[in-house]
Amino acid sequence: MNGDPMDGRPILEEDLHAYVDDALDAPRRREVRDYLDHHPEARARSRPMRSTGRPCARPWRRSPKSRCRPR
After folding, report:
1. Is residue 18 in some structural domain?
2. How is residue 42 annotated by DSSP?
3. What is the DSSP annotation of 7-36?
4. Which contacts (CB < 8 Å, 24+ apart) does range 53-60 have?
5. What is the pLDDT of residue 26?
6. What is the pLDDT of residue 48?
7. What is the pLDDT at residue 47?
8. In the Cβ-directed half-sphere of 40, how many Cα atoms lie within 13 Å?
9. How many C-alpha atoms does 54 have within 13 Å on its Cβ side?
10. Is residue 25 part of a domain?
């Protein structure tokens, strides 16, 4: 497997955010995990998304004390 999603949909930046936010369904989560296993540059880009341990991709779910900042 080369890390490309099996259903042909590309892995987008939004997928990486959803992955670290644990907001993907199980099949898509496996696809993104497999992609990250085969693409270290994408894994490196996703690391800062995990730094606060709080969801950042969905700003409407942020608490007032969240360290996530809008883009």
Report:
1. yes
2. H
3. TSPPPPHHHHHHHHTT-S-HHHHHHHHHHH
4. 55/21, 55/23, 56/17, 56/20, 56/21, 57/14, 57/17, 57/18, 57/20, 57/21, 57/23, 58/21, 58/23
5. 95
6. 79
7. 82
8. 0
9. 13
10. yes
**Domain count along the chain:** 1
Which residues, in sequence order, are CB contacts of 63 under 8 Å at separation 6+? 54
Neighbours of 57 (CB within 10 A): 18
Please indicate, yes or no, if residue 1 is contained in any of the structural domains: no
Domain-embedded: residue 47: yes
The confidence score (pLDDT) of residue 4 equals 56
Q: How far apart are the first and last CA of the chain?
A: 34
- The CA angle 37-39-44, to the nearest 5 degrees, is 95
Domain region containing 18: 13-59
